[in-house]
Specification:
DNA binding; YjbR/MT2646/Rv2570-like; six-stranded antiparallel β-sheet; 5 helices; DNA-binding; Putative DNA-binding protein (MmcQ/YjbR family); YjbR-like_sf; 21% strand
Length: 145
């Protein structure tokens, strides 16, 4: 198990976008941030002893997952029921698939109806809306600066 295998799996889920943020962290989003996408998983690429991956666990599974050795409350995100996994061998591959698919589903379910509607559009229309939204956000940022 490694980050490339997890990355490939996550990018195969519907409407997933990845960004590199906060140093060497791959952040996985349901939908593009420009249209209201929300992150559901974060993989640490630093190899600095911190958790390998953090993800949305939801309130129903949060406490149960924390009982597993190698699973801890996610730094900065525990209050919204995220867990961090310290080693890739904490779960078998089928369990990783289930956990990360559930994180994706939890996050998608929390999205506003307007954002979910955009995610239901054909890819070409989504890209156009994202491009327009990014241009608007850049325009606003330039006006503030």
């Amino acid at each position: 198990m490694d980050v490339e295998r997890v990355r490939g799996f996550l990018l195969g889920l519907p409407n997933v976008v990845e960004t590199m943020q906060w140093g060497a962290n791959l952040v996985f989003w349901v939908g593009d941030k420009a249209i209201g996408g929300k992150m559901f998983a974060l993989a640490n690429l630093d190899g600095d002893g911190r958790a390998m991956i953090s993800y949305a666990a939801g309130p129903e599974r949060y406490s149960e997952l924390l009982e597993i050795e190698g699973v801890i409350p996610a730094p900065y995100m525990a209050r919204i029921f995220w867990v961090a996994v310290e080693r890739w061998d904490v779960f078998r591959w089928a369990e990783w698939e289930r956990e990360l698919t559930t994180a994706h589903a939890i996050t998608f379910a929390k999205m506003p109806p307007k954002t979910r509607a955009v995610l239901g559009l054909p890819a070409k229309e989504q890209k156009r809306l994202i491009r327009e939204r990014r241009a608007l956000l850049a325009e606003r940022a330039a006006a503030k600066g």
